[in-house]
């Protein structure tokens, strides 16, 4: 089966196809290699050895100094929660957290809950291209801050944050630094031993491993409290019998990510750039969001003005093309993407953003098919839109059509 | 992706009456740009009969907003204005074979556009009282504003009351935290505080009723069992009391009741009767699930 057997898949920031080699690597751990890795007998021991190998594979991709710094979890969300809650528990006298307004809900929802429990959370704003102000960040660092949690790459726009520099600043101020690197791992080179990052989260299903496996990188000597207590798995840092097959799969996926890193930076980037240029040239009134100079090589977030994202997705889906939207109606909330709002993208555009996220399994032919498919879809929806006239947007659309309530 | 009915998809992919009606004499504009839905409804009304001769829509919105707009225009064409005003948002949703709960606001927008257009035709000023609020209960599509208003209007103070008055939280329970937060906020406005424990139904306790002694408790438990035994025995089954440990009542199912697929239901019914008879909560548990008595501790090795 190829990646395109069921259509064109451009939604790899949501989840990736499990690589066939990864599937092959994990299959024996459902059948003959079924032992509990904590058991002393040969059945368990063989699985234990496989886990050890996977730990080294993850260590290598992350450039971590020790394999013991890798803690297997169930997902990125669990890793994020473990990191932040641990930092608060080991430093009860510190009641502040620094994060950004554009984090994934895995961090934002936790921070909102912590605010209700009396913690102070500082949300760093972003500019129109999704960039942070490091001076403002520096001013917030103090002995009251327990942890800084900043994503490495934004899931919607792909914008990269300077987490290495930010970690150094946190270290100088004596503050723990965590990064949610779920979108960055496997797409950009990472060498943790050369950074001051204390904790890092990753998720297997974003790099062609299955869902249900994540990692918390925990720098040696970082004070720590587990989220899940119980057995002594993961050196007591995460209780619960290991998801052996998924861990083996993640190890293999990490190996492959290293192998494909350059491909990601060159070929995937070239496909993404061609897609963007093709769409911008073919569709009037659309633009790329985020920091185009500094972002993931696979992500193109394009705002199609005067129409709504879900409607675009439904029409794309009819043609067998899968993408994603941060628009209100796909998320179950009535608000448009918090990332677009934080960047100050006007509502007429924020609702019509479509994220195309590519992978090594995408082809130039697929890109061309999408470039062909999108313009008539946009034109069709604009014909229905009250903000679009005969051949362009109505003048001052927000005034021309004043909603009865806003 | 949402689970859209065939009809919603059909009206989205092939919308009817898209675009503005030529020579329209009524226009209704509603929506919220910030929420991503806006609808302009145009009508051509026969002045002699007030019949809607034609209807057209222009919608900025998602799949269900476009489908709802399309459905609305189909429903109202040929109706008089008075008949059209009887069309509810539920009628629009029903016409489409239902909308996902989170998308019901699309049908509301359709109905409001219709009201606005009729008001426009009649030269009246139309003001909607619609206030957007975050959807709290997805099972019954109840928004924050409705819950807040209902709490204030009826002096509600528990989650259970909110469920009874609004249906919010009556389904999967996922929104109970959200309902509690709203209760906390609204009650806080009048200096009251929300007591989470009040969310559960207090067991009926008779005023001045003295606490039962252990013997009395066991007698009442046995009385309940005796009252159900004839029914069970008729079906060649039985039940007997094995032990009472605090709030745990251990029973043994006998005969046909042992291994019966409906045993759990039977136990539930017995438990309900016992709670009523004792005026306190007890749990009726099969004796097989009883924890084993601990072995006496061995003397530590010297």
Keywords:
heterodimer, A: 406 residues, alpha/beta, Aspartate Aminotransferase, domain 2, Aspartate Aminotransferase, domain 1, seven-stranded mixed β-sheet, disordered C terminus, B: 302 residues, alpha+beta, Sufe protein. Chain: A, Arc Repressor Mutant, subunit A, GMP Synthetase, Chain A, domain 3, 3 domains, three-stranded antiparallel β-sheet, three-stranded mixed β-sheet
What can be said about this structure in brief?
The complex is a heterodimer of chains A (406) and B (302). Chain A is an alpha/beta fold and 406 residues long. Chain A has helices at 20-26, 42-62, 76-90, 105-116, 134-140, 163-172, 244-282, 309-318, 328-331, 338-342, 347-350, 364-384, 397-400, and strands at 8-9, 70-73, 96-100, 120-124, 145-149, 176-180, 199-203, 214-218, 286-288, 299-304, 321-322, 353-357.
Write up what this structure looks like:
The complex is a heterodimer of chains A (406) and B (302). Chain A has two domains: 20-257, Type I PLP-dependent aspartate aminotransferase-like (Major domain) (Aspartate Aminotransferase, domain 2); 261-385, Aspartate Aminotransferase, domain 1, CATH 3.90.1150. Chain A has 13 helices and twelve strands. The relative contact order of chain A is 0.15. Mean pLDDT of chain A is 93; it is low at 402-406. In chain A, the strands form three sheets. Chain A has a seven-stranded mixed sheet, with helices on both faces. In chain A, strands 9-10-12 form a three-stranded antiparallel sheet. The longest helix of chain A is centred in the middle third of the chain and has 39 residues, at 244-282. With 406 residues, chain A is an alpha/beta fold. Chain B is an alpha+beta fold. Chain B has helices spanning 6-13, 63-76, 81-85, 89-95, 104-121, 144-154, 159-166, 176-189, 214-234, 263-278; strands spanning 26-32, 37-46, 51-60, 135-137, 142-143, 237-245, 248-255, 283-286. Chain B has a three-stranded antiparallel sheet with strand order 1-2-3. Chain B has a three-stranded mixed sheet with strand order 6-7-8. In chain B, β7 (248-255), α10 (263-278) and β8 (283-286) form a beta-alpha-beta unit. In chain B, 34% of the residues are buried. Mean pLDDT of chain B is 83; it is low at 198-208 and 295-302. The chains are: A alpha/beta (406), B alpha+beta (302). Chain A binds chain B through residues 306-311, 313-315, 317-318, 327-330, 332-336, 347-348, 351, 383-387, 398, 401-406, and chain B through 1, 9, 12-13, 15, 18-19, 29-40, 57-66, 102-103, 105, 112, 116, 126-128, 130-132, 134-135, 138. Chain B: Residues 221-285 form the NIF system FeS cluster assembly NifU C-terminal domain. Chain B: Keywords: 2Fe-2S, Iron, Iron-sulfur, Metal-binding, Nitrogen fixation.
């Amino acid at each position: 089966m190829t990646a395109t057997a069921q259509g064109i898949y451009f939604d790899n920031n949501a989840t990736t196809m499990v690589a066939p080699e990864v599937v092959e690597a994990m299959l024996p751990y459902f059948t003959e290699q079924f032992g509990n890795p904590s058991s002393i007998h040969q059945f368990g021991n063989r699985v234990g050895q496989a886990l050890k190998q996977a730990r080294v594979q993850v260590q290598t991709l992350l450039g971590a100094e020790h394999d013991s710094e890798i803690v297997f979890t169930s997902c990125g969300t669990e890793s994020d929660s473990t990191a932040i809650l641990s930092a608060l528990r080991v430093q009860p006298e510190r009641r502040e957290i620094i994060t950004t307004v554009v984090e994934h809900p895995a961090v934002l929802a936790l921070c909102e809950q912590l605010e209700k429990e009396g913690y102070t959370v500082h949300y760093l704003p972003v500019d129109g291209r999704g960039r942070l102000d490091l001076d403002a960040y520096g001013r917030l660092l103090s002995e009251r801050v327990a942890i800084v949690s900043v994503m490495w790459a934004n899931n919607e726009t792909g914008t990269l944050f300077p987490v290495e520099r930010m970690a150094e600043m946190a270290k100088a101020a004596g503050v723990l630094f965590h990064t949610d690197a779920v979108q960055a791992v496997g797409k950009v080179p990472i060498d943790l031993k050369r950074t001051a990052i204390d904790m890092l989260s990753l998720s297997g299903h974003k790099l062609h491993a299955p869902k249900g496996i994540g990692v918390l990188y925990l720098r040696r000597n970082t004070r720590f409290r587990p989220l899940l207590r119980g057995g002594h798995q993961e050196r007591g840092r995460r209780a619960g019998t290991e998801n052996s097959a998924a861990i083996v799969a993640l190890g293999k996926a990490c190996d492959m990510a290293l192998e494909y890193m350059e491909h990601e930076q060159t070929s995937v980037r070239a496909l993404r750039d061609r897609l963007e240029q093709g769409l911008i040239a073919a569709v009037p009134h659309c633009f790329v969001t985020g920091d185009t100079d500094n972002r993931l090589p696979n992500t193109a977030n394009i705002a199609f003005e005067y129409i709504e994202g879900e409607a675009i997705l439904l029409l794309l889906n009819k043609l067998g093309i899968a993408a994603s939207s941060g628009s209100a109606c796909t998320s179950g909330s009535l608000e448009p993407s918090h990332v677009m709002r934080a960047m100050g993208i006007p509502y007429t555009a924020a609702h019509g953003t479509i994220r195309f996220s590519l992978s090594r399994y995408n082809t130039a032919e697929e890109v061309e098919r999408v470039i062909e498919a999108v313009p008539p879809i946009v034109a069709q929806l604009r014909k229905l839109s009250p903000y679009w006239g005969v051949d362009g947007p109505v003048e001052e659309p927000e005034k021309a059509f004043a909603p009865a309530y806003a | 992706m949402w689970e859209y009915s065939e009809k919603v998809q059909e009206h989205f992919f092939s919308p009817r009456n898209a675009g503005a009606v030529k020579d329209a004499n009524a226009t209704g504009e509603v929506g919220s740009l910030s929420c991503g839905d806006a609808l302009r409804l145009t009508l051509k009304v026969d002045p002699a009969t007030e019949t809607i001769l034609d209807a057209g829509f222009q919608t900025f919105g998602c799949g269900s907003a476009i489908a709802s707009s399309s459905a609305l225009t189909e429903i109202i064409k040929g109706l008089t204005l008075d008949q059209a005003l009887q069309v509810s948002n539920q009628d629009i949703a029903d016409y489409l074979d239902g909308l996902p709960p989170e998308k019901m606001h699309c049908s509301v927008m359709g109905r409001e556009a219709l009201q606005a257009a009729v008001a426009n035709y009649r030269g009246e000023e139309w003001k909607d009282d619609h206030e957007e609020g975050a959807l709290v209960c997805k099972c019954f599509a109840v928004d924050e504003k409705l819950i807040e208003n209902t709490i204030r209007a009826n002096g509600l103070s528990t989650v259970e009351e909110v469920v009874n008055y609004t249906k919010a939280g009556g389904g999967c329970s996922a929104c109970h935290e959200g309902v509690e937060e709203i209760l906390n906020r609204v009650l806080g406005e009048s200096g009251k505080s929300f007591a989470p424990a009040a969310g559960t139904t207090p067991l009926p306790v008779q005023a001045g009723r003295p606490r039962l002694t252990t013997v009395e408790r066991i007698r009442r438990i046995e009385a309940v069992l005796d009252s159900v035994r004839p029914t069970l025995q008729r079906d060649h089954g039985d039940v007997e009391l094995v032990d009472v440990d605090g709030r745990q009542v251990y029973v043994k199912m006998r005969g046909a009741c042992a291994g019966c697929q409906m045993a759990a239901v039977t136990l539930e019914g017995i438990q309900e009767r016992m709670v009523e008879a004792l005026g306190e909560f007890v749990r009726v548990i099969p004796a097989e699930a009883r924890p084993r008595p601990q072995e006496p501790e061995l003397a530590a090795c010297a």
